[in-house]
């Protein structure tokens, strides 16, 4: 049996294990949430985001269902509402600061705060073997800066409680700093991004700015950047790094004001973003994000998960 066949077999075995785990209900001592626990899911109108919202609502939470396109989002939310689930729609464009501000004001006025934030909204313009960086600026602005700005806006609204609050960033293995595939060629930069001592928001932002400068002057191919899904990979690398950075910041918060933040890779999911070429269903792709959102253990923070397993950044 070749390596690809073995990997496929392992993947299928793990999928079966997770399918079984999903059938096991949470016990009373595991359920730290109630029907008043409020979860925000960005980009929830389709694919993985829709399934994350769906599964959280099935667990009895109040889910704030958001999307950039209001008409499409309202129709998608209505599907869950008609199933008797506690889902409320609100328009949100994570790239627009005014939209984030309006959303934050609405949350504060209507709910007073939130308990869970799932940053799922994202874009990707490369499919299959294509690797255009034509939309690199939009990809970085949405996937990294949009996610970062949502986190900053929601931090003051995260409810203080003994159970803690949770942030889950939907990311990708393609954004691993030292992954075997798609890693940055600049060894010194990789080391800085890996080292908690040197990691900073300024370093992450500068890395993205340097890449975009290379896109503008068409020198990016010689810059040591990933050569496959380049802009998408770098946007997710930034999300992963920012997750680690914020975990350190949140660690210093006093008891009762804790926020756990983690990121996860949903896998190669059959959605519009992959042109329906994935090997994992949206239901399976949503599982790890939902699991992290509901995880009772508050010590789990600043980590990267795939298929409910902790993997290296």
TrEMBL record:
SUPFAM superfamilies given in the database record: NAD(P)-binding Rossmann-fold domains
EC number in record: 1.1.1.-
Coiled-coil portions: none
Record's keyword terms, sorted: NADP, Oxidoreductase
GO cellular component: membrane
Top EC class of this enzyme: oxidoreductase
Name the UniProt record assigns to this protein: Short-chain dehydrogenase/reductase
């Amino acid at each position: 049996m070749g390596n690809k066949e073995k990997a496929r077999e392992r993947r299928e075995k793990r999928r079966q294990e997770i399918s079984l785990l999903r059938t096991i209900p949470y016990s009373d001592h595991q359920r730290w949430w109630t029907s008043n626990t409020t979860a925000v899911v960005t980009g929830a109108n389709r694919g993985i985001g829709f399934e994350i919202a769906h599964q959280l609502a099935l667990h009895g939470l109040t889910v704030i269902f958001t999307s950039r396109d209001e008409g499409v989002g309202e129709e998608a939310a209505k599907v869950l509402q008609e199933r008797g689930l506690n889902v409320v729609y609100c328009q949100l464009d994570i790239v627009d600061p005014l939209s984030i501000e309006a959303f934050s004001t609405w949350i504060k006025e209507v709910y007073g705060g939130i308990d869970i934030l799932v940053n799922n909204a994202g874009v990707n313009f490369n499919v299959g073997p294509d690797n255009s960086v034509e939309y690199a600026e939009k990809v970085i602005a949405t996937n990294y800066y949009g996610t970062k700005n949502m986190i900053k806006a929601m931090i003051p609204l995260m409810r203080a409680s003994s159970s803690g609050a949770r942030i889950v960033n939907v990311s990708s293995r393609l954004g691993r700093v030292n992954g075997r595939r798609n890693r940055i060629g600049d060894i010194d930069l990789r080391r800085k991004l890996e080292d908690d001592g040197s990691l900073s928001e300024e370093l992450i932002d500068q890395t993205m700015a340097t890449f975009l400068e290379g896109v503008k002057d068409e020198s990016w191919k010689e810059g040591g950047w990933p050569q496959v899904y380049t802009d998408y990979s770098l946007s997710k690398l930034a999300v992963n790094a920012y997750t680690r950075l914020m975990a350190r910041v949140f660690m210093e918060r006093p008891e009762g004001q804790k926020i756990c933040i983690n990121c996860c890779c949903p896998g190669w999911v059959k959605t519009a973003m992959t042109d329906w070429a994935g090997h994992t269903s949206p239901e399976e792709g949503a599982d790890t994000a939902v699991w992290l959102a509901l995880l009772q253990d508050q010590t789990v923070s600043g980590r990267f998960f795939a298929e409910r397993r902790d993997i290296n950044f």
